[in-house]
């Protein structure tokens, strides 16, 4: 076997080899230079990187004689009166503050509470609360140690950026360190400063800026190691520039000089080390966004025209590469989809503010990403945690949860004039991004219902009802490229009932600090899908790679007002096959039928991970799920065969855990249905949603093929209920699809008639005969079996009709046949 480095080299084309060679050469030169001359920040580096603008003549004059204080005052005057290129500027402050306070009376108090904790040295980051970044080596101060992970008590070494081993556990969790170094807390300080006018918040920002510069000289340390992190940090610095610039002549700290010089140096580092080949996903998008926004919003820097052009080119090229035709993001992670939507929304805002003709292409990206995000979000604006979730955000101004998309959707709705994208009232974040001029009703359509639909290229299939039921099925490819942010979740599902999450994706927990937890949270057992012989469909190889991945194929997707139906399979357990069929009968039942195909004896397990707000009472074949204090919602889960067990916070099996946010791992309840047997066999789960017609028993019943047909596999369950007896039947003929199509098309063929006397696939179960691939029918005391839902059917008739004339009615009663 070829060693990994050689195998990777063999896959590179000439352009990649050239680019990597140039980057490596620059890194070697920079490293050698840093050994000879200790890197440090110098204010005199700002003069040569300023653009030759007439408005900056006084600034250049002051810099040339090293009058940093005068240069700072002139820069402040310039930015206080400059045109609005960024989402905010000094001239928009009065109207924005008035509008926020009028529309959100609690905003100032909430902003104060958040900012006061920051001033005291306490930070809410990712899934952690009130972190204090003071290491044992720190001086007595509330300012952070910018290289310290306070959760794991680890500190990264101060060494050349390209040699920092930040992925190693001995360095702690680089995500925690990087999150504080994104400086997004400055947005919270700025919000509080604008809404209250308290100077303590501006003073804290300046103190943190100067502290960071002292601890992070150019190209030294972990905070120079990720170009995405530099990109997000430079965007925070642009927010800070506009939030804190003042024309007060008593401001004697030339922080504007320091900020601009350091911002330019970090932007240069991004330019030279873009993630074209390292992480050409949201990493590359975020880096390009920083160059584009900085280039367009800061013409005061000489390199801005070049950077804007480079960032624009990448953002435009990546629309086709990273956004599928259905609007889904290529990484197939709801969290990173949100990142992409926010990235292109900010790019569109800046493009329009600066008159860039690229705005129409950014508009196209926001439309596509916004429509997909609205489908993936439930009626409350929350999305399931599909794929990785690192807990970060682009502009966490009000500390909204990262899985709450209402602000992103409202901003997108206004930008592209599609009010159906929005959910609920206009959020405060929209005012900070779009300006106080926004009409409070222009971007909202709270009455709009998003029907069931699919993102077929991305691979998500969504069943939803006006009552707030939201079922998301995963039938897509395993991530993007190396699947770095993918999970082993083929054919998994999440389900919210009446807007309340019931079946959840347990989330991510961590990336590199605990390999066992990382692999466990990505495994098939930690998703609402089936495992076979305790195997995971896809097998990881390190924190962001895979040695074995499942290939998924969606066979059927049907939607209607009454029901939705999904059928797909994957080969992750090859040579065995897992096929899943899901029938969602709106507001009534959800039936999940898992088929294990192949030969030999196997043990299969289906896992149902519950949101912790639900309590479960179980016996062998049934679980009753209730939400304490909510009498209107209860769900029962029934299985006709197999053994059902429950786990909560089980350290041995790893079941019964979820990660609501990156860095957290909390107990919850996992239901597990286990069945051992000789393949092929089925595990069927029935979710009862209608307490007025409650299920009392679920049993398998036989299916009989008609005539000379045989069935490749089939299953039928009888669902006994309070006022009806329902049947759900799945049947697959033992012929190829092409043969079946020929039989259906050419019914009079003598040759086909000799092979199959009935000249069509058909079967009988319970009280009916039909040719459907899937059928759901109901019998009541008031009448015989009626067809309520069917897929690929041309006829349906009860036994009473089969005994009479062949011309009896063959249509389905009371429903649409698909």
Features:
eight-stranded antiparallel beta sheet; Beta-galactosidase, Chain A, domain 5; 818 residues; five-stranded antiparallel beta sheet; 22 helices
Written account of the structure:
It is a single chain. With 818 residues, the protein is α+β, with helices and mostly antiparallel strands. Among the domains are: 286-450, no CATH class; 455-697, Distorted Sandwich (Beta-galactosidase, Chain A, domain 5), CATH 2.70.98; 701-818, no CATH class. The chain has 22 helices and 34 strands. The chain has an 8-stranded antiparallel beta sheet, with no helix packed on it. Strand 5 and strand 6 (460-464) form a beta hairpin. Helix 11 (227-244) packs antiparallel against helix 12 (255-272), helix 13 (282-297) runs parallel beside helix 15 and helix 16 (359-376) crosses helix 17. The longest helix is centred in the first third of the chain and has 23 residues, at 14-36. The two termini are 51 Å apart. Residues 747-759 and 801-818 have low confidence and may be disordered.
């Amino acid at each position: 076997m070829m060693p990994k480095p050689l195998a990777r080299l063999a896959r590179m084309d000439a352009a990649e080899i050239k680019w990597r060679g140039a980057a490596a050469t620059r890194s070697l030169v920079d490293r050698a230079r840093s050994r000879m001359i200790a890197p440090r920040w110098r204010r005199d580096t700002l003069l040569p990187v300023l653009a030759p603008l007439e408005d900056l003549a006084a600034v250049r004059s002051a810099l040339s004689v090293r009058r940093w204080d005068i240069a700072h005052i002139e820069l402040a005057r310039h930015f206080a009166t400059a045109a609005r290129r960024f989402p905010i500027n000094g001239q928009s402050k009065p109207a924005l503050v008035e509008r926020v306070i009028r529309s959100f009376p609690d905003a100032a108090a909430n902003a104060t509470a958040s900012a006061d904790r920051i001033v005291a040295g306490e930070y809410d980051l990712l899934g952690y609360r009130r972190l204090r970044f003071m290491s044992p080596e720190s001086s007595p101060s509330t300012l952070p140690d910018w290289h310290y992970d306070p959760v794991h008590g680890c500190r990264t070494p101060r060494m050349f950026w390209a040699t920092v081993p930040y992925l190693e556990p001995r360095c702690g969790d680089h995500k925690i360190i990087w999150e504080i170094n994104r400086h997004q807390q400055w947005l919270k300080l700025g919000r509080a400063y604008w809404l209250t006018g308290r100077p303590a918040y501006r003073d804290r920002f300046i103190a943190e800026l100067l502290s960071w510069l002292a601890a992070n000289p150019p190209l030294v340390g972990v905070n120079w190691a990720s170009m995405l992190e530099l990109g997000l940090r430079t965007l925070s610095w642009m927010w800070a520039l506009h939030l804190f610039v003042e024309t007060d002549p008593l401001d004697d700290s030339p922080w504007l000089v320091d900020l601009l010089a350091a911002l330019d140096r970090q932007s240069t580092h991004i330019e030279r080390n873009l993630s074209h080949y390292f992480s050409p996903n949201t990493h590359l998008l975020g880096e390009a966004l920083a160059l584009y926004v900085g280039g367009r919003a800061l013409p005061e820097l000489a390199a801005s025209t070049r950077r804007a052009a480079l960032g624009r080119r990448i953002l435009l090229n990546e629309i086709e590469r990273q956004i599928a035709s259905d609007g889904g993001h290529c990484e197939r992670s709801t969290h990173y989809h949100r990142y992409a939507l926010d990235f292109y929304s900010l790019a569109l805002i800046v493009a329009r503010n600066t008159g860039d003709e690229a705005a129409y292409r950014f508009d196209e990206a926001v439309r596509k990403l916004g429509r997909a995000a609205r489908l993936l979000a439930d009626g409350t604006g929350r999305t399931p945690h599909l794929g990785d979730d690192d807990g970060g955000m682009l502009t966490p101004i009000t500390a909204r949860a990262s899985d709450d998309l209402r602000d992103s959707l409202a901003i997108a709705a206004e930008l592209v004039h599609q009010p159906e994208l929005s959910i609920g009232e206009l959020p405060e974040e929209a005012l900070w991004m779009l300006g106080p001029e926004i009409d409070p009703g222009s971007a909202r359509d709270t009455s709009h219902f998003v029907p069931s639909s699919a993102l077929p290229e991305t691979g998500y299939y969504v069943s939803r009802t006006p009552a707030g039921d939201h079922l998301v099925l995963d039938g897509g490819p395993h991530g993007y490229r190396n699947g770095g942010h993918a999970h082993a979740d083929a054919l998994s599902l999440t389900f919210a009932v009446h807007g309340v999450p019931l079946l959840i994706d347990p989330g991510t927990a961590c990336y590199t600090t605990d390999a066992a937890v990382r692999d466990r949270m990505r495994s098939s057992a930690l998703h609402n899908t089936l495992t076979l012989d305790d195997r995971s469909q896809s097998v990881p190889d390190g924190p962001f790679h895979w040695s074995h991945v499942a290939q998924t194929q969606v066979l059927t997707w049907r939607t209607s007002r009454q029901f939705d139906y999904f059928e797909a399979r994957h080969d992750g357990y090859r040579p065995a096959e897992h096929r899943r069929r899901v029938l969602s009968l709106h507001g009534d039942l959800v039936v999940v039928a898992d088929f294990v195909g192949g030969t030999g004896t196997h043990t299969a397990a289906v896992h149902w991970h519950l949101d912790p707000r639900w309590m479960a009472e179980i016996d062998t074949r049934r679980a009753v799920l209730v939400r304490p204090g909510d009498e209107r919602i209860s769900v029962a889960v029934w299985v006709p065969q197999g053994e059902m067990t429950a786990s909560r916070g089980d350290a041995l099996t790893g079941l019964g855990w979820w990660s609501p946010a990156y860095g957290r791992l909390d107990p919850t309840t996992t239901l597990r249905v286990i069945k051992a047997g000789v393949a092929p066999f089925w595990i069927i789960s029935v979710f009862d949603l209608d307490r007025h017609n409650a299920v009392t028993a679920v049993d398998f019943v036989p299916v009989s093929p008609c005539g000379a047909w045989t069935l490749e596999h089939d299953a039928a369950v009888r669902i006994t209920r309070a006022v009806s007896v329902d049947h759900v039947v799945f049947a697959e003929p033992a012929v190829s699809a092409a043969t079946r199509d020929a039989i259906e098309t050419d019914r009079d063929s003598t040759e086909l008639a000799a092979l199959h006397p009935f000249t069509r696939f058909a079967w009988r179960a319970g009280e009916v005969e039909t040719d459907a691939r899937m059928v759901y029918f109901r019998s009541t005391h008031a009448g015989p079996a009626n067809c309520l839902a069917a897929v690929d059917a041309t006829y349906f008739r009860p036994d009473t009709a089969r005994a009479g004339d062949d011309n009896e009615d063959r249509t389905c009663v009371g429903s649409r046949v698909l």
